[in-house]
Write a structure and sequence with these properties.
This protein is an alpha/beta fold. The protein is built from 14 helices and 20 strands. It is globular.
Amino acid sequence: MTACRICQTPLEPFMTFGKMPIANGFLSKEEFAGEYFFELAPALCAKCKMVQIIEQPDPDRMFHDHYPFFTSSSHYMTLHFKKFAEQILQDNLSQSADPFVVELGCNDGVLLQNFANRGIRHLGIEPSANVAAAANKKGVRTVTDFFNEGLAKKIVAEDGQADAIMAANVMCHIPDLASVAQGVGRLLKNDGVFIFEDPYLGDIVEKTSYDQIYDEHVFLFCGLSVSNAFSPYGLQLIDVIPQVTHGGSMRYVLAPTGSRQAKPSVELLLERERQQGLDRPETFKKFRENCEKSRRDLLAVLNDLRQKGKRVVGYGATSKSTTVINYCGITPEHIEFISDTTPDKQGKFTPGGHIPVKPYADFKNTYPDYALLFAWNHQVEIMEKEGEFSASGGKWINFVPKVEISK
C-alpha cells in the first residue's frame, strides 16, 4: 500500500491509465527497445484531499540537460508572465527598498527577466541544465539545482531572505512538498509571500482534461489540498486567483501564518470545491467514467477517418499528448505525424506511441484533412495563427471538454 506524500495516509488509485512512458521522453528509433515505462495511476487522499499519482519516475529521468520545453516559445505565456511580474511588483514589492525575488523552476527565465530588466535582485532555480543556460544567457541569474531546505539556507547566507518566492507550473512536479515548504519557510521574510500557480483540479474534473495527468504532474492541486499541505509548515493560504492558462489554472498566495489576513476569495473557493465534490471519492469515480467515454469517442473518430482514407496529423507534441496517445492506443496508423515547432523534438518519435514528430513546415506545406489538437490549452493562440488551414477546408479534432470536430 502506497502512502500519501503529504500526510502518509494509505492510498488507493481511483483509476489507472496503464503503462506510460516519460511524457517528454521523445526518442529515436534506436531507443525504442530500452524505453522506460511506469504505471500512471492517480489517487485521492481521504485525509488531506490531495490528488496525486501513485508512482512517479525518478526526477533525473524527467528533468535533465536536454529537457525539450522552453516557455518563451509561447507568445501568450510570455505576456502572461509579464503581467504576473507586474502584479507582484505592484502588490508585494512596492514598499521594499531593495527587494529580492526567487523563482523555483524558472525554465528559460521568461518570468524573472521582467525583474532582471528592472535591476531587481533575483535568483532562478532550474534543475534542467539546458533551459537554465538559456535563462543565464538572457541575463537572468540562475542556478541549476532542485530546491530544498539545504539550498534555501545557502541562498539566505549569500543573498538574504526573499520578499517573494514564485513558481509557475512547477509545484505540481515536486513530490517532496514538505522539503519545499521547509525551504520556503527558511528563505521567506516574515512579511513575504509565496506565490505559485498550477493546473487546477476543479477545471480538470469539469473538463475531463485527463491529459493533465502525466509523470511530471505528481500532484493535482485545489484550494483544499494546498491549504492542508502547507499549513503544517507555517504557511497560510491567503488568496486564490483563477487563471486561464493551461486550460484552467489557479494562482495560490501563501504567507507565514498570522502575518496577513486571508481574503474572502479563499473561503469562497473552498466552499465551491466542497460543492463540486473535490474532497469525495464518488467525484473521481465519475471522472474515471468520463475519461473512458472520451477515450472511446476519440478512437471512434480516428478509426472512422482512417477507414475513409483521410489524412490526420497531430498538432503540438506536448507532454500531455503522451497520456492521450498511450491511454487511447493511438498509433501512426491513426495519425501520420505530429507537427511541432520545438527543434529538439523534430525528427524524433513520441514516447510510447512512436509517432513521428516533424517540423511545422511539414504541416503547413501540405495541409492534412484533419488536425488533432493536442496543444488545446493554447487554442486561442493557435486558431489566430491557423486561419489558412481552416480556410483551406481543414478541420480540427478536439477532445477537451468533449470529442468533436470543428473548422
